Amino acid sequence: MSIRNMLQHAGTNQHQTEQRTKNTFNKGTTMPEIHQPLPGPARDRTLSIRSVITALLLLSALISGCATVSSGQARYSDRVDGLFQSATVIPDHTYYFLGSENDPDAVIVIDNRYRLQTSRAWARAEPSVKLLQQWAFMARTYEGDLACPYRGVVLRGPDGQQVGMGYSRWTFTTITYPKPGVVAVGQPIPLGTCIGQERLDDM
């Protein structure tokens, strides 16, 4: 075969190969995409956005974990009612009051196995029969709404253990253990009919 014929034969084969390739992709085959790396600034912005999103997710999880605090409960008790109304000094307990010592809005008595977390709401009182009689008298002669009377409650921590007792016309809502051996008792709040009565008392 001459050189001229060889060149013609090679050209024919190349044309046939290109035609077959063209026909193949025309039948619906998609050319593979070649992903080029992002330019430097765009890549940096993408990484920065991902970092911010990751940080926000971690922060959200951390906040959620910190906000989850188990609280105890306060249960009404006729026995505690009787102890306060009879001005009985409860041994092995420490007394605290909220508001005026002569006419407190609430009283808590914490078992000495626990220490009350330092709080500006609660002030310590030295119990005496005379002081407790005054508290009982003020509670009995309270002229507020009869639907919002002073009531005695048993205070229990998140583990169900009794940590003390309380006496108030408001509702105890938060009892926690900030650390072992320490109990935090939130300031009782007026609920229901006591909300309106609190406003009248403050007038």
What is the topology?
Elements: H1 3-26, H2 40-67, E1 73-76, H3 78-85, E2 93-99, E3 104-111, E4 115-116, E5 123-125, H4 129-140, E6 151-156, E7 162-168, E8 175-179, E9 182-185, H5 193-202
Parallel strand pairs: 4-9
Antiparallel strand pairs: 1-6, 2-3, 2-5, 3-7, 6-7, 8-9
If you had to describe this structure to a student in words, what would you say it looks like?
The longest helix has 28 residues, at 40-67. This protein is of the alpha+beta class and 203 residues long. The strands form two sheets. The chain has a six-stranded antiparallel beta sheet with strand order 1-6-7-3-2-5, with helices on one face. The relative contact order is 0.13. The chain has a domain at 73-202. The chain has five helices and nine strands; from the N terminus they run H-H-E-H-E-E-E-E-H-E-E-E-E-H. It starts with a helix and ends with a helix. Strand 2 and strand 3 (104-111) form a beta hairpin. Mean pLDDT is 75; it is low at 6-10, 24-32, 58-68 and 197-203.
